[in-house]
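REQUEST FORM: STRUCTURE PREDICTION
Request ID: SP-0412
Submitted by: Lab K.M.
Chain count: 1
Length (residues): 93
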Amino acid sequence: MSQQKATYEGMFLLDAGNPDFQSASEPVRTILDRNEATTLALKPWDERRLAYEIQGRRRGLYVLSYFQVDPLKVVDIEHDCQLDERVIRMLVL
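STATUS: Completed
RESULT:
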């Protein structure tokens, strides 16, 4: 039984140590591809100093993504983000 894909917006906070956006956003691309998501847009939103230190990091790169995926796969995407050390925080709407 195949469900219809829904469109989601994801905000991912990544380590800002890499100045190249393509390689810095690779964890997000990998996670979305692994969960059979169709990426509609993936762009840098901002790089800024964090209000408080998170996992020893003081700066973060915010990556905004729009993607389509089976609604049952959203939990898997969130779980994969928690396991990947390069993804500091994430929010999917």
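NOTES: The helical segments are 21-24, 26-34, 74-83.
Reviewed by: T.R.
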